[in-house]
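HUMAN:
Sorry, I am quite new to this. Are you able to go through these amino acid letters and fold codes? The numbers rather puzzle me.
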Amino acid sequence: MTARIGIDTGGTFTDVVRWSAKGVQVAKVPSTPGDPGIAVLRGLAAVRRRPDEAVDVVHGTTVGLNAVLTGDLARTVFVTNRGFEDLIEIGRQEREDLYAIAPSRPVPPVPRSLRVGVACRRGPGGAVLDPLTAAEVERTVAAVRRLRPAAVAIGFLHSPANARDERTVAAALRRALGDVPITCSADLLPAHGEYERFSAAILNSAIAPVVGGYTRRLAASLGDGRLRLLRSSLGILPPAEAATFPARAMFSGPAGGVLATMQLGARLRTPRVAAFDMGGTSADLCLVEENAAVTDAGTIGGLPLPVPTVPVHTVGCGGGSIAYADAGGALRVGPASAGAVPGPACYGIGGDATVTDAHVALGHLGADTLLDGAFPIDVDAAVRAIERLARRLGMRAAETARGILTVADATMARAILVVTAERAVDPSTVPLVAYGGAGGLHAAGLAARLRMPFAVLPPHAGAFSALGLALAGESAEFARAVGCELDGRGERRLREVAADLGGLARRDLGTRGRVTTTVALRYRGQGAALRLPAGAGLARRFHAEHLRLFGFRADSAIELVGVTVRAATTARAFPAVSTLSATPGADAHSRVRPIGGGRLPVFRRGLRTSFDGPAVIEEATATTLVPAGWRAEETAFGLRLSTGTGGTPRRGSVSRGRLG
């Protein structure tokens, strides 16, 4: 049987999980930002039985995401209707900061000189207003060739109603340009809204050469096996679709953690949990329900990317986030990160104080904590970095270290409020599932701040997103724009479109997949739409959901905007703790770490079933802090942190040059 292996590339570490019915094997290696594939292959080698073993690798990668955020994109030409070349720059009449005197606007990755107008036009229903002639196609191809593109995006008005013109131009360009990636906006995102659709097409084209080159090199290096990406809306993306539409896997890494959290929530028999993934560079937050919510209102770098994705909210607060004094002398943390290179001061290369250094200085992490000592950390260097920052702030070193963690907790607590408040959910009713290498160090603090009922630390929490990738099922997804009222005729139209798209989905997955249909609805005259599962009482459910989210319901007619059909095989069930054993040969004895004038008990996870704080619980991929007044209990599916006292956990103190 081919081994299923999940690999998640983070900013600091690359996590690898080998899954089988008998259990899992975990490896964690430092990321290689210059070429992420190097770390992937190193991690793969650590879990492969032999170099030529057949493997099925499901990869969560940030290559496309990083390319957009850093501007390292392919030279992309945008082809659109003549007279509408500037639409992607005009955008919407929206301002992220209403009170900014000089607001900044997102800059589209295609400058004006790389936009080509085409003399053709269709109306809202797809009817021809200005025909596309053969001569105009020939002229367009010549204009694009002169610009020497590495990728091309095509976006015409109203193409979801009739995409013939887009596809005609695309076919001519493929004949002329050979292997240059070409994206038709209606094929990537068959939805109304020209600005959002054009932006998505441009971003998809701009990352296609980058992601394609990376995945081709990596797949060629695997040997016997296949490489696939996870869809941002969960489910494995077929290789051909990933090559054509890499934007659909833009958030594949965070999606892996959401998938694993959804599986764990089902095992815990709780309808709703908050996923909290804190790694070395950032923290990802998501409200996860029984059926993972999917949004089409995503953005990246200020630009709309409305492809279906799980609604993950990311903040620049991770273990490597740099602490500093701002111009007013106040303590700040992030979003700048020390990353994998040079890393926190305790890694022995960098010099800036980070969140990780604060934990080291306070005794929460010891010299041999990371990767069971395989990744040694320099306690003295961490303490020196904290002391340098303390002098700039005019504070004591211990106070500074505790302040760094308090600021980090406040940042992440606000992020949790964002993902709960936008769904009208009280965080005090939602358990916290904390993972990532640093998630366990902040789980109790966040749960206390928001009065969450308890927190759960899954086994191998530092590689939990990679576990989600290994558990993922297959998927196929098809969408179609629709424009009609939700009346009797509209419901018949909905059934027809759903049946048509369902046939396409079953064609891709056969009889294995469970088919679900979601619809996009809005009141007449609205711009945005709500996504709801199709089924009985659709109008009633739309009114109720609109009232819950926005506080009112209207008497206006309801419009059916779009239909999405998804076929997916069932993801593997989250395994119990007994199958997620600790690393063989690891030290399983408890010990005491001196901190300031006191001592902090340190336990190996798996040694016992309950722990009273203050204590630290270590495992190969993560560390959990149990503050005073808290209790940790090992359950069938994770370490449960709870307290009856509430309040903010107390932190430790600095002891220079000691394991504290």
Summary: The CA atoms of residues 630 and 643 lie 5 Å apart.
